[in-house]
Amino acid sequence: MLFFSSQLNPLPGLDGASDDLFMSHDLPQRLPAGAGTVNPIGHPNAEALMLDHLALAEAVARRYFRRNPARDEDLLQVAYIGLLKAARRFDAERGTSFAAFAAPTISGEIKRHLRDNGWFVRPPRHVQELRSRITEAVPRLAQGLGRMPGLPELAEDLGASAHEVQEAIQCAEHLYPASLDVVVSEDRDMTLADLIPGDGEELEHAELAAILSVAVRALSPREQRVVHLRFFEDRTQQEIAVELGVTQMQV
């Protein structure tokens, strides 16, 4: 992983912007001086071109920030990698500014990273893609409706069933593992970590119970009854024989 730092200030007005912003003709006015119109001919290599456009990578990365410092820092590094890839592939002779060429490349690099590495438990690809579409649709519909869209409205807009939309929304719970410090009792004196058994006798019994349950299910109903009477009700063989109407030897 490459690590970079930049002394450039964040780009104003770019949070939440779309990739179309970087394709517009007024791009130089939206970026710091030199960020969108630098002629790469004056740069000896791709790394130098990249270093001149760190602010562009930071602006694109901020669109995906979720107030999680560790995750956001990872996304920033991924954005820098995307910027470097764009710098290595950029052809100035095509007449396109480097910023207009690099922004979609950076965004694509971040999206691939989130798709492949952003899930603690990865749902199916189609669920991930639908969730991304929901993320884009919610603010757009909210602006038109003047309120947050409901499930039926989202489903109609996305051409999906309400169940599929609900599933995609709920899959966000798989992005990050639950904290062991989460309070799970009303009196706030028990956390999730307190419910996890240790390496003692209780855990050993739980493992044995899981193994035995499989074996017991393979028995006939009558044999299961014998096991229950003997080991759960602590009956003697004679008592079991009397209840089942068989001899003690048969038990």
What is shown here, in short?
The chain is an all-alpha fold and 251 residues long.
What is the helix/strand order?
HHHHHHHHHHH
Number of helices: 11
Helicity, as a percent range = 40-55%
Q: How many angstroms does the end-to-end distance come to?
A: 67 Å
Show unreliable segments. Answer: 1-44
Secondary-structure content class: mainly alpha
Strand content: under 5%
* Overall pLDDT: 75
> Would you report the number of β strands?
0
User: What's the alpha carbon Rg, rounded to whole Å?
Assistant: 30 Å
Shape: elongated
Largest sheet: none
Q: What this model shows, in words?
A:
This protein is an all-alpha fold. Helices cover about 55% and strands about 0% of the residues. The protein contains 11 helices and no strands. Helix 3 packs across helix 4 (about 70-90) and helix 4 (about 70-90) crosses helix 5 (about 100-115). Residues about 1-45 have low confidence and may be disordered.
Question: How are the secondary structure elements laid out?
Answer:
Layout: H1 27-30, H2 46-51, H3 54-62, H4 69-89, H5 98-117, H6 125-145, H7 151-158, H8 162-170, H9 201-217, H10 221-231, H11 237-244
Helix pairs in contact: 3-4, 3-5, 4-5, 6-7, 6-8, 7-8
Keywords:
disordered N terminus; mainly alpha; Arc Repressor Mutant, subunit A; 3 domains; elongated; about 250 residues; single chain; about 55% helix; about 0% strand
